[in-house]
Amino acid sequence: MPGKNGGGVSIAGASLGERVRTARKALGMSQAQLAGEELTKGFISQLESGTVRPSIRSLQIIAGRLGKPLDHFLGDEVLSSEKRVIFHRLAAETAVEQRNWAAVREHCALGLESPVDGAERASFLLLLGRASQADRDFERTFELVNEALGLIKIDASAQLAAELLTLRGHAYFQLNQLAAATEAYETARDVMEKYEVPEPRLRSRLLIALGSAYRRLKRTSKAITAYESALAHASRTSQLVLAAQGYMGMAASHYDSGELDAAIANYRRARELFERLSDIDFELSCFQSIATVQFENGDIAAAKTSAERAMERAIGVGNARWAAVVEVLLSRIALQEGRAEEALRLAKHGEKMLSETDDKIQRADALGATGAALEALGRTVDADKAYQASLDLYTKIDDLADRSGMAAEYARVLKSRGQIDEAFDMLELARGGVTRR
Fold it and tell me: Which domains does the chain show, CATH number per domain?
């Protein structure tokens, strides 16, 4: 995009191009070296002469190569500090929807460089907490949640408080501290109800998380009620990712031009579309969770109906990951119905698809389903390999809660074979200990 002022963006008396040229020459770097593979020498030349304006992404590449923070080039632009904060928060929220955790951290860092009030800072800490949870750095997650809750008044920021409490619950849940997770979720729910928080999407996700905690605690009726209530809140939409990405592109372009109001408006549109898209993912999660509870409760016919409904929906919206997750559940159902060969086929195909989508948690479950089918077919050596692969994967990603469940399942298999010592080892692992390898 051509620069509006010929010399580019003014920064502390020097144009953007001049600042880039000075930093490049200080490092003894040529224009071609600065361009690297992502950019071109011609682009760098035009940038330094002030005839083009780079996108934020291009400037990030350049800043990284020059060893400078992005605001070394943007910090003195005549832009509203408040609008900058809003822009970076919206950008970070959109990155959360995309699970782009590096972008989340980057935009949070940029947003927090400006003075912000307690609630705004707490909002950024929430986003950073979600990134820490994704990295399974739960200690950091708890620190961020506690700091954020200390910055706000619940009556004035009830939705933010509920989101922080929900995040705390997620961290406890992944650590298999189910009582603490349930308490956090119930507190978040109570906050939403007391202060009448009008946010159905948050309520839906909170209810399904609470249902999952109840299910782990064997409170089956409460789990079903929570899941059904969550599903009632779930919205339905078609795939809108291209439109959302288009809005993101427009937002970045407006930001590059200094038009922050337009940038913020377009990022809001993008975020809304990504939220609607993720509601499809959430809806499928509800279907699968209900089917799982029905299966665990011994209602195989109902579980099969729910799982087939989930599969139909997943295929209808083109969601390959959830189709594979449901396929693994259908494998378990087929095994219960005495169709071991079909169960093995479903489990193996589901595991293959989940490997391609890099869903390690669900893939570990698929390996366990494969082990169960192989065991039913009398292929005990192969079954052992599948079960051990499942446990190893859960260990690798530090998913102790699901590893515990799989170890308990494998212990039952070993006991049924008469391998009592090995079964005892697995029970120790299920309780959080280690096995003799």
Answer: 10-74 (1.10.260.40), 81-203+235-271 (1.25.40.10), 326-437 (1.25.40.10)
For residue 10, give the 3-state DSSP assignment: strand
Element (H, E) at 124: helix 118-134
Q: What are phi and psi of 14, to 5 degrees?
A: -120, 145
User: Encoding tokens for residue 302?
Assistant: 């109902």
Q: Rounded to an integer, what distance in angstroms lies between the CA atom of residue 333 and that of residue 66? A: 57
How confident is the prediction for the chain on average, in pLDDT?
A: 83
Q: Which residues of 206-218 are buried (b: 16+ CB within 10 A; e: fewer)?
A: bbbbbbbbbbbee
The 10s digit of each residue's pLDDT in 215-234 is 888 787 787 778 777 766 55
User: Could you tell me the two tokens for 136?
Assistant: 């399974």
| Residue 220 exposure: Cα atoms within 13 Å on the Cβ side | 9
Quote the CA–CA distance of 17 and 35 in Å, as a whole number.
Answer: 14
| pLDDT tens column, 160-184 | 999 999 999 999 998 989 999 999 9
Per-residue burial over 225-261, b if 16 or more Cβ lie within 10 Å, else e, is ebbebbbebbeeeeebeeebeebbebbbbbbbebebe
The amino acid occupying position 406 is M
Provide CB contacts within 8 A for 344, sequence distance 6+: 331, 370, 373, 374, 377
Phi and psi at residue 11, to the nearest 5°: -135, 105
Amino acid at 145: V
What is residue 429's DSSP assignment? H
**Higher per-residue confidence, 7 vs 425:** 425
Is residue 51 within 8 A of residue 3, CB to CB? The reply is yes
Rounded-to-integer distance, Cα 47 and Cα 16, Å: 8
Looking at residue 11, what DSSP letter applies? Answer: E
